[in-house]
Design goal:
By secondary structure, the chain is α+β, with helices and mostly antiparallel strands. The protein has a domain at about 25-80. About 25% of the residues lie in helices and about 25% in strands. The chain has one helix and three strands. It has a three-stranded antiparallel β-sheet with strand order 1-2-3. A hairpin with a 4-residue loop joins strand 1 and strand 2. The termini are far apart. The model has no long low-confidence stretch (mean pLDDT about 90).
Length: about 90
């Protein structure tokens, strides 16, 4: 039995380690679940390919939004000119 506060060990196989590139998103939701589809659109031809699809609970989507907001704010802070940053 693990103690409270222990982080689970999460692994990824070598085929998936590099991840995927997406430049389009489609979100579909219902009462019990939300599905987020990520696609890579061809810049020349009118076609694309789904590269990942994740279905999760609305509560977990809130966690994703919070984490993305944190990373986004850090990126904005780091990429903006120092004179425009407010503490």
């Amino acid at each position: 039995m693990s103690e409270e506060g222990d982080e689970p060990e999460i692994t990824i196989d070598a085929r998936r380690f590099a991840g995927v590139w997406a430049n389009a998103i489609r979100v579909n939701g219902g009462h019990d679940e939300i599905t987020v589809g990520f696609a890579r659109l061809d810049p020349v031809e009118p076609r694309g390919m789904v590269v990942a699809r994740v279905t999760c609970s609305p509560a977990f989507v809130r966690t994703i939004i919070d984490e993305l907001e944190h990373v986004w704010q850090d990126w904005v802070w780091g990429s903006s000119p120092p004179e425009t940053r407010s503490p």
